[in-house]
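I hope you will forgive my troubling you with a question about protein structure. Here, with my thanks, is the record as I have it:
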Amino acid sequence: MIFRKAVLLLATAIATTTIAHAQFGVYGTVSVDRLTGIASSPEPDSNNLGARNDSVLPLGGTGGVYYDFLKLGPVRLGADLRGTLTSVKRGAYSDYNGGGARLYSGLAGVRAVFHTPILALRPYIQGSAGIARTNYGLLYNEQGITSTGGITGNSIILHNNFQVQGFAGVDLRVLPFMDFRVVELGYGVINPYGATAHNYPVGTISSGLVFHLPF
């Protein structure tokens, strides 16, 4: 009887720890962005150094944290905070790479995780918004002109943008403290500030690891 009680207490402790681990986590993924709509990007000056491709594919990584704080039946709601750094040497010009393409973003969002009959699988969806900095893959000018009229040489001009993006993914439990993020797909828009701005569609595909922390 004492042995059975000890086993039951141990099982309860393990289950409680597992639940706690599932509530808070950190993750890192390899990410590929696809920024499109480049052909209609605004011209900063009259130096158009070649025909534009419609898209660029910067590669990099995403790191973030999440906290699932509310359980509603088979769904657990939470918050997510992430940052992404991606870049590629190929720019949006077909005959000149220029400074290549760069896309850096910081997003905050709300997520929903769904429990399935296969306990090791944890599909989720998420909506996020925040700030992105990008040069859209464009070489703006061969000799950058400063606000005071000076020449700076080859110029990489990063612009601040508002970004909104939805994500859907699947995590696979491989260890009590670790998941394999099999795939995460994202789609949204980047909108530069300004009266003449237009939306640039952006898609993302990621895969990586998620670590659960004992909080």
Observations:
- Residues 5-21, 44-49, 142-152 have pLDDT under 50 and may be disordered.
